[in-house]
Amino acid sequence: MSIGPEPIIYGLIFIAVLVMVEGLYLTVFGKSISLNNRVNRRLELMKKGSGREQVLEQLRKEMNQHLDAKKVPLYSLLAEKAQKGGIAFTPLQILMVMAGLAAVAFVGLTIGTGADFIVRAGVSVVMGVGGVFVWINSKAKKRMGLIEEQLPDAVELMVRSLRVGHPFSSALQIVSKEVPDPLASEFGVISDEAAYGRDVGEALKHMAERLDMQDLRFLAVAVTIQQQSGGNLAEVLAGLAGVIRARFKLFRRVKAITAEAKWSGMFLSGFPFGALVMINVIQPNYYDEVMETAVFIPACLVVAGFLITNIFVMKSLVNIKV
Questions:
Q1: How far apart are CA 254 and CA 215, in angstroms?
Q2: 3-class secondary-structure state, position 198
Q3: How far apart are alpha carbons 184 and 296 in whole angstroms?
Q4: Which candidate, 33, 107, 296, 321, has a CA 20 to 30 Å from the CA of 306?
Q5: What's the confidence (pLDDT) of residue 36?
Q6: Where are the alpha helices (DSSP H) in the chain?
């Protein structure tokens, strides 16, 4: 049993698929869609000449389009991740990108490998769908991490604005201009909606449910209670900012403590596969004597089952909720 260059070709094609998705995304929507851009996307769209109402309509459409497409077969698996990732592609465009990348992967596999047509077609579909899923998942994780990190600073900025006499609507507008994306555009949409007459507490609650963030729910509840019963909103938000920052520090501490266990789990999960590849590269005939025995296939299935179980067990051990 020997392993040729095909696995390396498969890996390179899959990496090329991921690069193509990111390149296409930046080409269609420009640099302002990138999370590390200094100018937030809302202000960039206004700078290009779009009116405030047009920008609000476009951003609201992008923010809600994936949840509205949850009923589409198969796409429901991607909808929540795409929503949290703030993916500007429409659901139809994402499906078209999957199909296009699958076609590109099929051409690459046809040129680089000698696999059968059915194998190439199946692997191409897996690469097209899997590549987009991995890309969206990474975008969602990065974006949600940035929002969690930016939220305490944004709330403290609102507190300072309220203490100098600004109304809460002006505090939201200041946050939308001073804080970078992704949180800036989110608060910018709330600020614009409040300017057009929507209740601020309701808008904050909708954002919290859409992003599924507990800290944003706390903020929405605090603003709603203050609107209904009155009180010093600045002091309430100051306390909330402290709580959010303390939870974020605790989360970082837990992440640092469990980092070694996570990497150990990844190593223990990936090492058997790496060892299998190295054994077949160094000594291709290593398993020839046992391949014909009756217990070889059952033993391989048992080992694969243990490896898969190990992945889920290690993930559950280090998945600590804060």
A1: 18
A2: coil
A3: 58
A4: 321
A5: 58
A6: 6-29, 41-47, 52-68, 76-85, 91-112, 117-163, 168-178, 183-195, 200-211, 214-229, 233-257, 259-282, 288-291, 296-318
Mean pLDDT, consecutive 10-residue stretches, the chain (322 aa), reads 61 83 80 64 73 78 76 74 83 86 86 79 87 88 86 88 85 84 84 82 85 85 82 84 85 79 77 78 76 80 82 74 61
Tokens 């596969």, located at residue: 273
Return the amino acid letter for 157.
L
- Alpha carbon distances (Å) from 204 to 186, 193, 212: 10, 10, 12
Q: Spell out a b/e string for 130-159, using b for 16 or more CB atoms within 10 Å of the CB, else e.
A: bbbbebbeebbeebbebbbebbbbbbbbbb
d(CA 171, CA 162): 7
Amino acid present at 188 = G
Residue 191 C-alpha from the chain's centroid:
25
Q: Rounded to whole angstroms, how far apart are CA atoms 144 and 42?
A: 18
User: What angle (nearest 5°) sits at the alpha carbon of residue 198, between those of residues 197 and 201?
Assistant: 135
Q: In the numeric block, which tokens belong to residue 118?
A: 């059915």
Distance between CA atoms of 182 and 36, rounded to whole angstroms? Answer: 9
pLDDT at 117: 81
CA gap 92, 103 in Å, rounded: 17
Phi, psi at residue 148, to the nearest 5°? -60, -35
Question: What is the spatial distance between Cα 63 and Cα 192, in angstroms, rounded to a whole number?
Answer: 14
DSSP-derived secondary structure for 15-72: HHHHHHHHHHHHHHH-GGGSTT-SS-HHHHHHHTT--HHHHHHHHHHHHHHHHHTTTS
What residues contact residue 320 under an 8 Å CB cut-off, 6+ apart?
Answer: 254, 258
Dihedral angle computed from the Cα positions of residues 223, 229, 235 and 236, in that order, rounded to the nearest 10 degrees: -50
